[in-house]
Amino acid sequence: MGEFRSRKPTKMIDEFETDEVTLNKVTYEWVTACTKPKHLRQALRLLKDDGGYFPELEKAVKNKLKELDPKFKENEVVKQVDPKGEQEAKETIAKWVDQIEKSEKQKESSAIFDEGKPKSEGKMTKEQLQRHAENEKKKKKKKKK
Predict the structure, then answer these.
(1) Does the pLDDT of residue 2 top 80, yes or no?
(2) Is residue 22 pLDDT above 80, yes or no?
(3) How far apart are CA 40 and CA 69, in angstroms?
(4) Distance CA 69, CA 39 (A)
(5) Is the model's pLDDT at 88 over the cut of 50?
(6) Helix, strand, coil: what percent of the chain each, to 5?
(7) Are 24 and 42 in contact (CB under 8 A)?
(8) What is the pTM of this model?
(9) Which backbone phi and psi does 128 adopt, to 5 degrees?
(10) Which has the higher per-residue pLDDT, 64 or 83?
């Protein structure tokens, strides 16, 4: 007959003991049961990165962190941005602002009509001149009626 082997009992992995902290895992029950400041810091970072939609849960995590680690300061959880990344972000924003300003200036300078009259017919395309002429004809016909 077949051989019967006994298996060693496998330890069930408790969700509170795993190193992976996800936003879905962070609940009031999890916070109460958590005993590792590292996990609570990760949870707090996730909650802040998510946009602060759960202020009461954030407060519970902070309180538990203070309980487990009396030296805990809220500032230490905030992500530090490296100077190079910060500079790149500033440059990107500056370029974007320049593009917006240029497009606004182009819109202002490309306004074809000023009180119904062309600013400069030399700057208008043939198609724009044709439309302008058609509009003028329509206006004259409406006035005659």
Answers:
(1) no
(2) yes
(3) 10
(4) 12
(5) yes
(6) 60, 5, 40
(7) no
(8) 0.42
(9) -65, -40
(10) 64
